[in-house]
Amino acid sequence: MTPGPLAYFLVAAFGIGAVVSGWLVFRTDSMLRAAYWLMVSFVAVGAMLVVLDAQFLGLILILMMSGEMTIMAIFMIMFMMNPAGLNPMTMVHQHRTSIIAGVGSFLVLAWVGVVAEFPNRPAPLEDPTIALGEELLGRSMLVFESAGVALLAVMIGAIALAAKQGRFGDAFEGSEEPDMDVASGDRT
Amino acid sequence: MTALGILVQVMALLVVGAYIFVVADRLMVGTETGVRAALVYPVRRLSFLLLQPVTTTERPDFEAWILAPSLLFGLAAVGAVPIPLDAPSAGGDIPAGLVLFGAAMLIVLVAVYIFGWAPNSALPMIGGYRFAAMVLSVGIPFSLVVLTTAIPAESLSVGMIVEAQSNLWFVIEQPLGLPIYLVTAAAIAFWGPFDLPEGSDLAGGIAAEASGPRLATWRFARAALMVTLALMGQAVFLGGYLGPVLPGWLWTVIKTLILLVILASAGRTLARMRVQRFVWFGWVILLPLALVDVFLSGWIAL
To answer: Is the pLDDT of residue A1 over 60?
Structure first.
């Protein structure tokens, strides 16, 4: 499929949308809105990928982000000293540090984008599944295997932390109401 | 088919389907109301809600509260687009249609969570958190059983998956698929035994503060979501438009109605499951079963 003028327009529109909604993350005073503006930004990036004919990649990005942003919103609300996070609060802190970090990372990324030589390889003519398998278990094996082992360790750790029964006994111990049977006299 | 044609078709499908679903649900409630009362119930309820004054809460997130019901309906519509109704359909050749459906169904979590959050009120918010816990537990089994149907078809296009069932429907070839799909689909639509996000113990949960047109849109969007889920269920497990004698679109309608009636009766007959137990059920029972489904289907396909 050769990209028509509509494709260029759509990619530009979604790109601008991604940047604007990313900016809105920090302009809002609600944690829910901040989380979901970030999701809108990711959805716009996914839509760009769909227009660029990487449908599966774009849709998977959107699919993953919907769950992830909700988890992020829950964790944000959990760690704030603000029951349920319903009260408005500012989304920007440590102004000087964040300005320096933001400008710095923008300059580095822009420099990479301008200077780096991007590969101009056409898509492999052979079966993409075979090409992917050769990439995963050939040239890029070290990268993927180290990432895989790291992710596995994280998953085992998360399950160990979340499991109901662990080394320190039942997770509900102490969180249940004490026995209300006062008459018998022994409070176990 | 043009984009406008697909839009009209999906809208008509969801409106008619939602009406039938609500009527079927009313008929489950009891016989004393009568068939005629059930047939006019959706119209009566809708006109009542549209004329009802809208109540509001103290400092709600107004825009999000307006957005959430429309978003829920939009997701139901997007999920219905890749499902072919009849053999040669323009909607059927979306190459990654199954992933589009999956993405739309998981964003339902966002719509419901926003709807629970927006009124700035405790009970709807608890309902939103309940839903988040439920969907995060069944999201993976749901996606797995839907995507497993793509293994024998060797395609993510729903039309190709229907075609791959010309010999044997996937409900038989992948016996774990449809039961897991129905359970997780009911949870994603917060319907039936899994409607505790809108439970009466929370005075209506996520919809506790909603009223008027907002509640009407919300209820309609949920019914449309059920229709989309039933449509996809029959397409990937019950052979979609395939069937003898009758025209293809009629088979689609019949199979969708069967799934809708199963879901409606489950909602009226099965006992509710506590959210904590449901989370356990999702991770410990459904997820391993879904993985078994994937491995078995992959093994058969190889």
So the answer is: no
How many domains, in total, are found in chain A? 2
What's chain A's Rg over C-alpha atoms?
24
pLDDT at A111: 94
Residue A4, pLDDT above cutoff 90: no
Question: How many Å lie between the alpha carbon of B106 and the closest alpha carbon of chain A?
Answer: 6
Q: Whole-angstrom distance between the N-terminal and C-terminal Cα of chain B?
A: 36
Residue A4 counted as domain residue: yes
Instruction: Summarize pLDDT for B131-149 with one digit per residue, the tens.
Output: 988 998 898 899 999 989 8
| A170 within some domain | yes
Mutation for A interface: B59, B78, B105, B113, most A CBs within 10 A:
B113
Asked if A4 and A82 sit in the same domain, the reply is yes
Contacts of B136 in chain A (CB under 8 A): 67, 70-71
Q: What tokens does B112 get?
A: 């419901």
Task: Please say which residue of A91, A117, A151 terminates a domain.
Answer: A91
pLDDT score recorded for residue B70: 93
- Report pLDDT digits (tens) over A125-159: 677 778 888 888 888 889 999 999 999 999 998 88
Q: Which of B96, B120, B139 sits opposite A56 (nearest CB)?
A: B96
Q: Do A56 and B132 touch (CB under 8 A)?
A: no
In this structure, is residue A111 part of a structural domain?
Answer: no
Beta-sheet strands, E only, within A16-168: 165-166
Q: Which pLDDT band, with edges at 50, 70 and 90, does B91 fall under?
A: very low
Between CA A176 and CA B107 the distance in angstroms is: 34
CB B99, CB B56: distance < 8 Å = no
| Contact state of A32 with B64 under an 8 Å Cβ cutoff | yes
Q: Please indicate, yes or no, whether residues A68 and A129 belong to a single structural domain of this protein.
A: no
Range of the domain at A171: 125-175
